[in-house]
Specification:
Distance between the termini: 58 Å
CATH architecture of the largest domain: Alpha-Beta Complex
Radius of gyration: 22 Å
Strand content: 15-25%
Number of helices: 8
Strand order of the largest sheet: 8-10-7-11-9-12-13
CATH superfamily of the largest domain: PurM-like C-terminal domain
């Protein structure tokens, strides 16, 4: 009787230390990649089905985000942890408790498996820290030269715990504007790594999940009227979006000196000729709260890592037909804070 060799002749997972096109073929190499790497990091994937069945009996929040950050490894994080933090934080901004994530990898042929393992391990740690589960995923491979090593998409589902979901229409004149910590670190960490700029002390990304600090606000009886994470476009973009999104636009006035920025971050921003208000954070958010609860909100946020410099930075001063954000200086002068135009720092998330 003839003995048949059932092993695929195409180089498989066990015999290579880089991603090959066969890893995206759906065959043996794909299965080995899933079971030997992804399923070990994310146990919920071990059922090996086409999707995740989720029970729900109340309002749910659903979001998705894609990550193309360059470089993929940066001071304070990597594309893996960032892809978890970004989607978890979007859910938290809706007053939701993040529960489940999906993940999709687009890998370039030749990408090092050891780098993928580092990224997957980082994601595993991030989901554990955030208290969420990755329950489904996908992997595709593109030919060498047709990708940038790795891109990641994550989608997330969360349960809305807020009695009324935060949104701009709940904001009132007189409400205080609060920032959850110092800003612009992520964008400046990316730029320093990308351009080989050495800063003393080094700048580390603020990338982190903020869902626990958000939930602590609700536990303390503070129900933010509106929240927004300060990612691309930074504080200026977030505030302008909110000022314009209300059915009756508003005028938000901040004190520029009240916005916490680390000295090394401010120094690099000045060197590069950019305004820290326009620079992304990945673990910070803005919230609007009634004046009587503003200090309590700040004190609550300061109990969490990264929230030590949470501060009241402004207030809603009036309704305004076009939506307006201004900054007042210590000398009393006031300037308009415009929505950033164009891409100031490309591929920061």
């Amino acid at each position: 009787m003839t003995d048949f060799n059932l092993e695929c002749p195409v180089t498989g997972y066990a015999n290579t230390d880089v991603i090959t096109l066969s890893h995206g073929s759906g065959g043996e190499s794909t299965q080995r990649l899933i079971m030997n790497m992804f399923a070990k990091a994310f146990p919920n994937l071990q059922t090996d089905t086409d999707g995740a069945g989720i029970l729900c009996g109340r309002t749910m929040a659903f979001t998705t985000d894609s990550f193309v950050v360059d470089p993929i490894f940066f001071p304070g994080g990597d594309i893996g942890s960032l892809s978890v933090h970004g989607t978890v934080n979007d859910l938290a901004m809706m007053g939701a408790k993040p529960l489940y994530l999906s993940v999709a990898f687009i890998l370039e042929e030749g990408f090092l498996l050891k780098d993928l393992q580092t990224i997957v391990t980082s994601m595993s740690a991030a989901v554990k820290e955030a208290g969420v589960s990755i329950v489904t995923g996908d992997t595709k491979v593109v030919e060498k030269g047709h990708g940038h090593g790795i891109y990641i998409n994550t989608s997330g589902i969360g349960m809305v715990l807020a009695p009324v979901a935060p949104n701009p229409d709940r904001i009132h004149v007189g409400d205080k504007v609060i920032i959850s910590g110092d800003v612009a670190r992520h964008g400046m960490a990316i730029m320093s790594a990308r351009n080989g700029i050495e800063i003393d002390p080094p700048i580390f990304s603020d990338s982190a999940s903020i869902n626990r600090s958000v939930m602590s606000l609700y536990d303390a009886g503070i129900h933010p009227y509106c929240m927004r994470d300060v990612t691309r476009g930074g504080v200026s973009a977030a505030l302008n979006e909110i000022a314009r999104a209300r059915s009756t636009p508003i005028h938000i006035r901040i004190s520029e000196e009240s916005v916490p920025v680390e000295d090394n971050v401010r120094g690099l921003a000045e060197l590069l000729g950019v305004d820290p208000l326009h620079i992304a954070s990945e673990g910070r958010f803005i919230l609007f709260a009634e004046p009587t609860l503003a200090k309590k909100a700040v004190n609550t946020l300061r109990k969490f890592p990264g929230g030590e410099k949470a501060a009241i930075i402004g207030e809603v001063v009036a309704e305004h037909t076009s939506g307006l954000v201004t900054a007042k200086s210590l000398l009393g002068s006031e300037k308009i804070i415009y929505m950033p135009a164009g891409e100031i720092l490309p591929r920061i998330c």
